[in-house]
């Protein structure tokens, strides 16, 4: 069976593994106070066009942990985060945000993307209410978006700027979940780390789903959030004693353009598969430009694929149709891609 | 400078590193559903004298995460956990238990250990109260102990059984934090994994502080808690996508007696240092039998040590005395131990 | 200005006021352990066809408090409550349920009512998932419905039984918010307190919006929830020291059929207003059968009403249309009703 | 049996009852937006020497609710409140603060009072730690004191100023729980509402235990907390729909000096009882100056008292001694006081 069910079936990419082996004997201080974390932070800040005055980089054990601890730091009691109804924090993180005491206000999304007017509407409603009416709802405080989205799509720079604008106007904290950022950056024609860093108040650079063993880099610009984040991260159980592992991994990612390369290579594999689907007339649930594909296949193709490859079923219709998700990653063998392409076309 | 400030200054032990490299190319399912986790679980259950009917093993990203998610699964609203006033969850986890909505009821401890009568007293008070008086406090639901304790001491089998007995009588869930379990088991003459598993309702086997890159193995016997734990762990952000890393590490720990060996070796290094302190008449804050030492040094020795080694200062008195904590681990070089011994004696 | 903006513009109904004055000099124990609470409990249990073995009655300071403390008692970590997207706990309680750490899973509703198949779908999806997929979402644990609903409609006995059935099949706790129960019971042809008590695992009988100064009676059948509720209520700040006030009020409600009479009288006033709207061709946003009306008025009528009466605006369209909410209650003067009718018809 | 077990055995004082009856027919807006609340706010602000620019008054359903919602508004994630180990929020509110996600850092107290140096020590420890050490604990954010304390004692103006000073130096929010404020103000020679308002950032004026049916007035000076409090109060279920009841009660309290009179009268009754105890050589657990007395009685007196009066047992020693709590209030009949005095002396 070929593995297309997710983008974390492999271990870590060889470049990271090599560095882990290399640095393993070093005796280093704990809790991300080591030189590897410091070097990785410098590299990231530089790529993001930020200096140490303007932002800090923190290290979280998982994506859910990054989201939970960041948003918990940002939101006060009775404050809410706005997110697409397809947002990972709403559909796939087991109620983490609510566990922290906060409501997610879902807004309609298109292809996984929030439109600025959706945010505008919620905020205007709130702002135009009198004091007592406001007290009956949650105060909008933050906006959560994913880059790329859960449906594999990406925001253009213009779209990001529009979101950033509406957030600034309504004093909302804009947070970007970059679980699959490598694929998003590689697919985008106008958004690089710099643009992301300009538009967002905080974002995380995904490690786990982009070729690291585990761990994510959380970049925060807001001064107050930076001051309080480490304590919250610790409180949530997400501060890693041997932070060096994360520092080492992200140093490898950003010392040269490994992160970008890993993203591009996975996107290219996905593109080949997409083309194969298109050639046999299969349509897609979303116009993904990245490493996740959401083909809508009929029963026959569903069954044929099931025999040889692993994928995730998003939904099945009563007629036997299936909306599937297939992922590629740095570790997807070319041979597996070819086998899948043949299977689709056969 | 020699590093004695904690037991996680090294990377992972070579045996684990080798396995990580070996298994890295494997394509495996995510979220701890892989064969490495399954093998590690089997090995652990076997050593603990348990079968798959009696217990499950789960994998958590960190010790705070293990404590947070386990206790959150166990406790309902308005329920509390009893712990020593020196307990890690009370003094060093940034309010994680309270973040989950629960109160820690601290009880007096001796050398880091809870006495059964302390538990007895809290429970009797509660049980003898009328319904309204009970409603004004938190219902005791769980007991948290550490093995070894935060002061390096260990419970004897008799002590563990006594605690287990009082917990059973009052329907309290007994949970053991084994962040440094390797050192505790290696130091004990009558407690092995089997005994721990008999006395506790759940416990975790520490990886991070005992030689793994990160991660802890949570062993749970209670059926209801087993059924709900994974969802809570995910909600807390502690479920690791590439669980294989943890499976691989713990497989290495328990395939032979590596875990025990790592503990013993660190304890032996600590013993040499302890002897040196004793020889120059230094007394200790606690009778640690494991890899942590708590010497009470005068100003002169404090200064001399400060020049060459890193340690943690627990407290300083006005007269310049210091209570220190020094840790050894698998990665402490013999040379560092010797240097420290010389320093003490000089 | 005549007051139709809500059903709590008056103080308490005269029958309750009289009893409060009468019982004021009594010296009674605190925290609902008094004879007035005991008597009120007996009366309620009797009307509900329950005995003291089968259920307890508790007293909460407000409706949000009743919902918060009851659902917090019922749900464990990572568990969710299903509710209509129009549910009071979702739209008007400022994130109380999320504050307690739990997610509300909204399901589509019709006229404010949940359909059994909506519950069925969520539960089947969950139950058919494997263990890891389950861990990524919240476990359905309770269902929240309102009687009458937020749109003034009421469930028929058949509908209630169907909901109760699906809840039992999926081991969901069925909880009914009876903030305006007096109006619902008065409007229903086949649901009385007995039927409610048969179908629900817990429900609350609204005081505040039905003629009391404040306070709600929470009826709970489940043994474990009864055992733990008082502590949770206290923890939430909802246990009232002078519970006697609530006991006294609900004794007045249920000593004879005052509760029913208050509901009926408000419904009759609402019916007169509804007829007037219908006569001038105004349609309604929902087919309310109780004391809340949701007429959809054009700009002209909107403005005419605005001059003389107070109401709540649910929403305004760009064309100037308005969906309004008008409420009657025991305290609405007949003169106000007549004035409003004249205004509509003029 | 005479009732000395608490200060809320009566209904409300006659002056409040009269106003409730008088204002009952008024049709008023809900949620404390009514004229009675506005008038009560003006009266309170005036007595406190504050204007509407400097502070707002809010209305909470209970004391636990006031504490929970105020502190939840003040504290961000990972922040803690310092309190005496005898503090009501620590010993008698069922874990409300922890439920909201926050830790109570208890400090040693004397006669129920916190010493400024205790606060100083906790804050210095925190401030002198490095960033990583800080991340392992909770950040001190607020200080909770009670006036009078849970042991009936009161802070002098000098003591209050010292606490206020240390709080300002360390940017801590000083919050005063005035559940029994009437008794405290009546007993103090130098603290009136003005002084309290000068020293505290927020405080609440107790209604329930001082003669109202229920409800407390929360006075807040901090601008940000004022802006967010109402939403948090609603979220906690503590915003009362018929806030008029609270407005009416506090208007009665502060229209003339009723609040002070009620306090003084209860204190005088307590003084008579204290004198009687002293005359027969009974000593006290605390030097209470207010309406609560804590005599330490021998077994004989314990039994004699038990026959005729109700009191609360704080603790019993093995020798049969008992530390009792006896309370007086506006509703304690002179006859009961005399009977108790006779009983003590007999």
UniProtKB/TrEMBL annotation, chains A, B, C, D:
InterPro entries attached here?
Answer: ArAA_b-elim_lyase/Thr_aldolase, PyrdxlP-dep_Trfase, PyrdxlP-dep_Trfase_major, PyrdxlP-dep_Trfase_small
**One Pfam family of this protein, by short name?**
Beta_elim_lyase
Is Repressor among the key words of this record? no
Keywords, alphabetical = Aminotransferase, Pyridoxal phosphate, Transferase
Please state every residue range assigned to the domain named Aromatic amino acid beta-eliminating lyase/threonine aldolase.
54-299
Picking any one GO biological process from the record gives:
amino acid metabolic process
Signal peptide positions are: none
Q: Which terms in the Gene Ontology molecular function aspect does this entry carry?
A: lyase activity; transaminase activity
State its cofactor: pyridoxal 5'-phosphate
Report the sequence similarity comment from the record. Belongs to the threonine aldolase family.
Q: How does it assemble?
A: Homotetramer.
Task: Give the protein name, as stated in the record.
Answer: Aminotransferase class I/II-fold pyridoxal phosphate-dependent enzyme
């Amino acid at each position: 069976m070929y593995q297309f069910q997710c983008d974390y079936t492999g271990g870590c990419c060889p470049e990271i593994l090599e560095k882990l082996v290399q640095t393993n004997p070093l005796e280093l201080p704990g809790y991300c106070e080591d030189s590897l974390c410091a070097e990785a932070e410098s590299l990231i800040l530089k790529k993001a066009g930020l200096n140490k005055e303007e932002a800090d980089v923190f290290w979280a054990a998982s994506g859910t942990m990054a989201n939970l601890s960041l948003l918990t730091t940002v939101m006060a009691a009775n404050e809410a985060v706005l997110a697409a109804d397809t947002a990972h924090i709403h559909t796939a993180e087991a109620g983490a945000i609510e566990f922290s005491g906060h409501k997610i206000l879902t807004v309609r999304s298109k292809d996984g993307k929030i439109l600025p007017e959706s945010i505008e509407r919620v905020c205007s409603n709130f702002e135009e209410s009198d004091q007592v009416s406001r007290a009956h709802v949650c105060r909008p405080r933050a906006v959560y978006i994913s880059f790329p989205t859960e449906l594999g799509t990406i925001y253009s720079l213009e779209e990001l700027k529009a979101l950033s604008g509406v957030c600034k106007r309504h004093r909302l904290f804009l947070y970007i979940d970059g679980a699959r950022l490598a694929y998003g950056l590689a697919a985008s024609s106008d958004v690089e780390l710099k643009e992301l860093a300009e538009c967002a108040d905080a974002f995380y650079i995904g490690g786990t789903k982009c070729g690291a063993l585990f761990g994510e880099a959380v970049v925060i610009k807001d001064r107050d959030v930076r001051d309080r984040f480490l304590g919250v991260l610790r409180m949530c159980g997400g501060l890693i004693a041997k932070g060096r592992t994360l520092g080492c991994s992200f140093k490898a990612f950003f010392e040269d353009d490994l992160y970008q390369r890993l993203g591009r290579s996975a996107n290219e594999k996905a593109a080949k598969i997409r083309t194969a689907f298109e050639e046999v007339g299969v349509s897609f649930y979303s116009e993904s430009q990245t490493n996740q594909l959401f083909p809508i296949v009929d029963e026959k193709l569903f069954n044929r694929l099931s025999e040889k490859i692993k994928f995730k079923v998003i939904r099945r219709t009563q007629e036997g149709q299936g909306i599937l998700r297939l992922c590629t990653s740095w570790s997807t063998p070319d041979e597996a891609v070819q086998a899948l392409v043949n299977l689709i076309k056969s």
